[in-house]
Amino acid sequence: MSRELAKRIAISAGALLCLALAVVFALLALDVVRWSDAIRAGDVRYRASAADDALWRADELVPLASARNVLGVEDDLAFRRAVRALRVSRLNDPTGSISDPEIAIHRNEAQARLEAIVTGDFDLARRSRAAGLLGVLGLVRFVTETQGRDALLSSTISNLQLAIALDPANDEAKQNLELAFQRGRGLDPSEGAGGANPAPGGNGAKGAGAGQAGSGY
C-alpha cells in the first residue's frame, strides 16, 4: 500500500469518526432537551396525579444514561420518585395500610427509596429532607403498628435528629421531632402525621398533621 493511499484511508477514517461523533453529540443534545422537558412536565403532572407511572421519563437515543449524567439529575429524579411513592401511600390516612395492602407496598417502597437517599446522596439538604420524611413515615406507622413500637419510635426520633444534624435549618424536622417525643410520652397517639400532598420541589415536611393538600413538603 502506497503512502498516499494510506494517507487517504486515514483521512477518510478520521472524517467518518468525526461524522459519527457529530451524530452522537446531536442525539445527546436532543436527549438533554427531552429530559429537561420531561422533568418540567413531570412536576406539573405530579401535582395533578401523583399516581401517574410515567412521571419524569424520557425516551433516550443515547444509551448509558448519558443525558441524565450530563444534566446531573439522577439524584433529583431519585428524590422525586421517593416523594411520589410517599404521596401515593396516602399519609393523611394513617390506617389505610390495614385495609389496603397496596398502600403498605407504597410505604415500603417510599421507605426504601428515602433510605437510599439518606445513605447515598451527596447533597446534605436533600439527605436532610429524606431523613425528615422517613421520620414522618415513622410517625404514621406509629399510629397503627402495635408491635415493636419502642423500636419504631426510636428509629423515627433518630431519623428526625439526623435530618436536623444534616440541615439545622430544617424546622419541619424539629416540629416533627417534638411530636415524636410527645408520642413517646403517650400524648395524642391517634393523630395523623405528615402533609397530604408532598411535592418534590417543596422545602421539607410540615409539622406532622399540619400539612394541607398542595402545600408540599
Summarize the structure.
The protein has about 220 residues and is mostly helical.
Count of helix runs: 8
Helix content: 55-70%
Could you tell me the strand content as a percent range?
Answer: under 5%
Overall mean confidence score, pLDDT: 85
Provide key terms for this protein.
mainly alpha, 66% helix, single chain, Serine Threonine Protein Phosphatase 5, Tetratricopeptide repeat, 217 residues
Write the layout of secondary structure elements.
Blueprint: H1 3-48, H2 66-71, H3 74-88, H4 96-99, H5 101-120, H6 124-144, H7 149-166, H8 171-184
Helix pairs in contact: 3-5, 5-6, 6-7, 6-8, 7-8
What does this structure look like?
The chain is mainly alpha-helical and 217 residues long. Helix content is 66%, strand content 0%. It folds into 2 domains: 1-57; 72-184, Alpha Horseshoe (Serine Threonine Protein Phosphatase 5, Tetratricopeptide repeat), CATH 1.25.40. It is built from 8 helices and no strands. The longest helix has 46 residues, at 3-48. It has helices at 3-48, 66-71, 74-88, 96-99, 101-120, 124-144, 149-166, 171-184. The N and C termini lie far apart (70 Å). It is elongated.
